[in-house]
Design brief:
CATH superfamily of the largest domain in chain B: NagB/RpiA/CoA transferase-like
Structural class of chain B: alpha/beta
Shape of chain B: elongated
Mean pLDDT of chain A: 94
Low-confidence stretches of chain A: 241-246
Largest sheet of chain A: 4 strands, parallel
CATH class of the largest domain in chain A: Alpha Beta
Order of helices and strands of chain A: EHHEHHEHHHEHEHHEHEHEH
CATH class of the largest domain in chain B: Alpha Beta
Largest sheet of chain B: 6 strands, parallel
Largest interface: A-B, 60 and 56 residues
Radius of gyration of chain A: 18 Å
Mean pLDDT of chain B: 86
Distance between the termini of chain B: 91 Å
Oligomer: heterodimer
CATH architecture of the largest domain in chain A: 3-Layer(aba) Sandwich
Structural class of chain A: alpha/beta
CATH topology of the largest domain in chain A: Rossmann fold
Number of helices of chain B: 18
Number of domains of chain B: 3
CATH architecture of the largest domain in chain B: 3-Layer(aba) Sandwich
Low-confidence stretches of chain B: 14-19, 21-31, 145-150
Helix content of chain B: 40-55%
Strand content of chain B: 15-25%
Strand order of the largest sheet of chain A: 2-1-3-4
Number of domains of chain A: 2
Shape of chain A: flat
Strand content of chain A: 5-15%
Number of strands of chain B: 14
Radius of gyration of chain B: 26 Å
Number of helices of chain A: 13
CATH topology of the largest domain in chain B: Rossmann fold
């Protein structure tokens, strides 16, 4: 191994979609990068959204301390959940600022952003197998507002045979658990309709998105398979059949 | 003849200027760099934020030098409505412009006071059918000058009114939120996309200009750039307002002209309504806002709820309304963060919304449902431990219904699938693929 990165997997990957974390582990291994996974808790954004800043601070401080300790030798920190990424990088700072928080904020990357950076530096293994597949890419709000839109698409386009039919940057209306709540559900569905129609009209094999919540929302209205970009990328490395991935 | 400050109406270049504007767009040497406009805007607005009390005082003195203007100070909406009632006398017919200060803050009180208020702006579009404003493609093109961003030159002073009409006035009151006013010489600026502003300034028997205290700028130059910038950065948001909705229309043009002796009256109300209080706390960043509503275009929630009624919606307007106390706390926000993306003066609206919410919950407490959902990790852990049984259970209608009742999670929600083995477990075991 030549390099190391610290990985913040967040709740969705940990509890609901471990394949994403496994895919990143594999991708990093293929690129001779070791993954360090410190102890971690929920990023705290759901607590903020439910009016519990004290609970959010507790988690945020814990994560900042653990991540800062793990990244102390100068390692970068990767996330694959846009909301966790935004929380650690900037959203929590105005309320829960600390030396550790400032330290990690400067080292946080979305995994696709990081891998594309490696590519631009000529350090990404591009020995990809072909994946003949048509996909719809949905860029989640929490990447969009950090201006991380082009990198995930550019990374996906490195996969031979993969056709990115449409890139969508509109909000899906889910907003974490926002769209699941009774008081917001109808509004959330109304927001999602435009996206659902676009997905259906694109006539693709799968919708690709980094956000677990966006994925649930897209699947709810279209029934289409949802794939995380990292899973797709790893499949391109190991020649798995991404069309079966869910 | 009574003298008044200049009333300037800024418009996007209309049909005859489209080619010119297109030329400017292509000729880079003639374009004003977007970033330099933003920097200048921030300077202008910082001055407003840091000198507000002095600017109010200066404006009052300036306006007192015009014998054709009567100036009043209103501390809140109730105060303003009461002043308007006195000015209006027996007249109850009112035309209002589409400004936050009038539509959102004053209109409810005006209605309660017996005024019939109409947004004349919508009346200028062709597509009204039985009280419903219809969205049709041609509506977009009835708004002149959709040329894109950075085109400062495509907005210009199109109308300049320097005296009050002594004839041809009509028996109604125009209540208009000004977009900017110069403290130095009292020149008033409006942004106009159709012709409602000009018409009201020329036709209304009584003109009442409502000046939110954040609209008082140092001088004419600042006020003009502020007003032009509203147009430039807010163009797309103007289109959002054309969502079909119920709206009462009134044909002011068909009102008969009053006899000659009915010359116009001009009143200015300098209006606070909680704004000066904001200057003293962490929300003072809101004073940087130029009310362009670029943030509204990005807001997914606003596009689906607030634009259906007459509210002049933007995330910032909503936040201001909740801080003023006439709107409920910003619970409708889904925290996408998009409102900050296009703000020309970089107001951190998302952080201010978080802050307002925290303060609200600290003061009023949280519901049990909110408490149950604020630790999704705990729920995920429990679900994971019980998987795959938990996955089977959450699909049962009765469980969905109970979840809805106790946690507020809608029964039709698409929930994620719990995994017995977490990523963390897998990694600790050495991270080997099965």
């Amino acid at each position: 191994m030549n390099d190391k990165v610290v990985y913040y997997h967040g709740c969705f990957t940990n509890y609901y979609n471990p394949d994403v974390g496994k895919a990143l582990f594999s991708i990093l291994k293929i690129n001779n990068i070791e993954m360090i996974v410190p102890e971690q808790k929920c990023c705290g954004m759901p607590m903020m959204a439910n009016g519990n800043p004290a609970g959010a601070k507790k988690n945020f401080d814990y994560n900042a301390r653990m991540l800062a300790e793990a990244a102390a030798p100068g390692y970068d920190i990767l996330t694959n959940c846009p909301s966790c990424n935004m929380m650690l990088k900037r959203e929590g700072l105005p309320f829960f600022d600390s030396e550790d928080a400032e330290f990690i904020s400067k080292r946080i990357y979305d995994a696709s952003e990081y891998l594309y950076k490696l590519y631009l530096e000529g350090r990404l293994n591009t020995n990809f197998h072909e994946i003949p597949m048509r996909i719809f890419y949905h860029n989640p709000c929490h990447l969009r507002v950090q201006n991380i839109t082009n990198e995930p698409v550019a990374l996906l386009k490195l996969i031979p045979g993969l056709e990115v039919v449409k890139v969508n940057t509109n909000c899906c209306g889910m907003g974490g658990s926002y769209g699941m709540k009774m008081i917001n559900h109808e509004r959330s569905v109304e927001i999602a309709k435009k996206l659902w129609n676009e997905v259906k009209e694109a006539n693709v094999d799968a919708a690709v998105t980094e956000c677990g919540g966006c994925g649930l929302q897209i699947a709810a209205g279209t029934g289409i398979r949802i794939i995380h970009p990292l899973v797709l990328l790893n499949d391109a490395y190991v020649k798995g059949d991404a069309r079966k991935a869910a | 003849m009574a003298n008044i400050p200049g009333l300037m109406v800024v418009e996007p270049s209309a049909e005859q200027s489209k080619h010119r504007a297109a030329g400017i767009f292509v000729r880079k040497d003639k374009r004003v760099e977007g970033e330099s406009v933003k920097e200048r805007l921030k300077e202008i607005r910082e001055h407003v934020k840091n000198n507000n009390a002095a600017l109010i005082e200066q404006l009052q003195k300036t306006l007192n030098t015009y014998d054709g203007v009567k100036t009043l100070i209103a501390k809140d909406a109730k105060d303003a409505v009461s002043q308007i009632k006195q000015i209006a006398g027996d007249t109850t017919l009112v035309s209002i412009n589409k400004s936050n200060v009038v539509v959102n803050e004053l209109r409810p009180g005006l209605k309660d006071a017996g005024f019939k208020t109409y947004l004349r702006y919508y009346g200028e579009f062709k597509n009204f059918e039985e009280g419903k404003f219809q969205k049709k493609v041609e509506d977009y093109w009835s708004l002149p000058g959709m040329h894109g961003r950075g085109l400062v030159e495509s907005f210009d002073k199109r109308h300049s009114i320097t005296k009050l009409a002594s004839s041809g006035t009509k028996d109604y009151v125009a209540i208009m939120g000004v977009n900017a006013i110069s403290a130095e010489d009292g020149t008033v600026y409006f942004l106009q996309h159709m012709s409602n502003i000009t018409k009201d300034l020329q036709q209304a028997k009584k003109i009442i200009l409502v000046v939110g205290i954040e609209k008082i700028l140092k001088d004419k130059e600042d006020a003009l750039l502020h007003t032009k910038s509203m147009g430039i950065y807010g163009l797309e948001s103007i289109l959002l307002d054309l969502i079909p909705h119920d709206i009462e229309n009134y044909d002011f043009d068909s009102l008969p002209s009053l006899p000659e002796e009915n010359s116009q009256e001009l009143h200015v109300i300098i209006y606070d309504n909680g704004r000066s209080k904001l200057l003293t706390n962490e929300y003072n960043e809101l004073f940087l806002c130029i009310d362009c509503r670029a943030c509204a275009r990005q807001c997914p929630v606003g596009q689906h709820i607030f634009l259906k009624n007459d509210m002049v919606y933007s995330p910032k307007n909503y936040l201001l309304g909740s801080l003023q106390g006439w709107l409920p706390p910003h619970e409708v926000c889904l925290h996408c963060g998009r409102c900050q993306v296009e703000c020309p003066v970089d107001i951190d609206i998302p952080t201010l919304i978080w802050k307002a919410q925290f303060e609200h919950y600290a003061e009023d407490g949280r519901s049990l449902k909110k408490r149950m959902l604020d630790d999704p990790e705990l729920l995920a852990k429990l679900g994971g431990m019980a998987a795959p049984l938990s996955n089977w259970m959450v699909k049962l209608y009765i469980v969905k219904l109970m979840t809805q009742i106790f946690t507020g999670v809608h029964k039709d929600s698409n929930l994620p699938t719990f995994h017995k083995e977490t990523f963390g477990d897998w990694f600790k075991k050495g991270g080997s693929h099965e």
